[in-house]
Amino acid sequence: MSLTDRSATDLIAALRNGEITAVACTEAFLTRIEATNPTLNAFLSVNGEGALAEAARIDAARAAGKPLGPLAGLPVAVKDVLCTTDQPTTCASKMLRGFRPPYDADVVRRLREADAVLIGKTNMDEFAMGGSNENSAYGLVRNPWDLDRAPGGSSGGSAAAIAADMAPLAIGSDTGGSIRQPAGLCGITGLKPTYGRVSRRGLVAFSSSLDQIGPMARSAADCSLLLQAIAGHDPGDSTSLAVAVPNYTAELDKPLNGLRIGRVAAHFGPGLDPEVAEHVEATFTAYEAAGATIHEVELPHAAHGVPTYYLIAPSEASSNLARYDGAHYGHRWDGSRPPDDGGMADFDSPLVEMYCRSRAEGFGPEVKRRIMLGTYALSAGYYEAYYAKALRVRRLIRQDFLDAFEQVDLIGGPVSATPAFKLGEKTENPVAMYLVDLYTVGTNLAGIGGISFPCGFTAGGLPVGFQLQGPALSEPLLLRAAHQYQQTTDWHHRRTAALPA
Question: Which one is catalytic: 45, 158, 178, 219?
Fold first, then answer.
């Protein structure tokens, strides 16, 4: 077995006992990236020289008997929405092309303190807005299981990197399913923590009340290692929870006897792919065999999740992205006017023209669509009818989950209605693209935790994902439930044949 085939848990053990060096481990993954990234486009930047230098430092420190962090020598990929001082942070947008932040995101700081080796920044939908990773200004990402299919989004680069063995661990961000949905479509494990469990400081904001950073890896055990390193209170983030961080690996091996898992009948209606439904139902059966009990629960307002999300998130995006005007932040128009002026009208002043043209050049179509939708929803005369009403529905959705968790410990079901879809299949129909988040947006609207992990494959060889949702700060239980399932199945060990070995 090559180093890149091994789990993060195995690699950490091998690094600690001297079986391998951090340099050898890093070189193996850099070689894998070099071989596969031209096909997948999962990484936007790779810091090979810096990563090898950091790995050499860790090896020297270990040889000298110096104390090291829990991820010492392990390569980690970081979604390009997190600020890093030593690599560009572009959010996959022309607006931030070549931008070098003056500080590290809190999550990046914690990874460095854990002595992880940050090997590169992964591709994504521009400003995290998308469900297929086709909105990147620097080219789409391909699904490692079928190169003609989407990896999901917006953390598609991180998901593809894990699925293709380009990194043992990766960081994603989840605003409406952007960790869990690509994890499901790429056959890996991804955890969206409770809102506030992981600091958002240094995460370039899309929707501030919904964004959350989380781990992506092959298995729940590997995710627990990464969550342990990045979770915790950050005084610099006003939304960060000031609560102790538990030992996420300590309870992974406890059995599931007595665990109550909810099943929402409405999740199995029209639109759910039959093969997805079959594997999801089989997963419920597997949990029963492991000692859990399955109970029917209702989420009465779940059908309103997508429209609620697509009012709140674009509204917050409209506000957050207002700063990118070519003067304060971001790309600035160079003053040239092409022969085809794109239908732009005359402007009242040179300053207004600079603002408009800078934003027109810097933002892609989906980002513009969401900014306009959000600006409209927040405008005078429409605020109460749209944004304020969406906030009230959000409260009802949250209450649905609170009521359900009075009856069960976790809620299970599909991550997405279909396996990975064809590239280009949904790009001309934004509503169809938005509906890929049907089963995931509720977790963000309620501020709770959710985990996605592989539960089977279609006849065509595409991964199928299963989702568990839990109450606030239930990450230990979510990880344990996923881990126990993965002890009796091998779906998370499967490797794609669409790429060279």
Answer: 178
Which domains are assigned to the chain? 3-258+475-493 (3.90.1300.10)
Residue 98 burial by Cβ neighbours in a 10 Å radius (0-12, 13-18, 19+): exposed
Is 154 designated active site? yes
Confirm whether 155 is a catalytic residue.
Answer: no
Catalytic residue among 7, 136, 154, 240: 154
Q: Report the interhelical angle of 365-378 vs 305-320 (nearest 10°).
A: 100
The per-residue pLDDT for range 209-233, each reduced to its tens digit, is 999 999 999 999 999 999 999 999 9
pLDDT greater than 90 at residue 294: yes
121 annotated active-site? no
DSSP 52-111: HHHHHHHHHHHHTT----TTTT-EEEEETTB--TTS---TT-GGGTT---SS--HHHHHH
**CB-count exposure of residue 425 (10 Å: 0-12, 13-18, 19+):** middle
Catalytic residue among 7, 79, 136, 452: 79
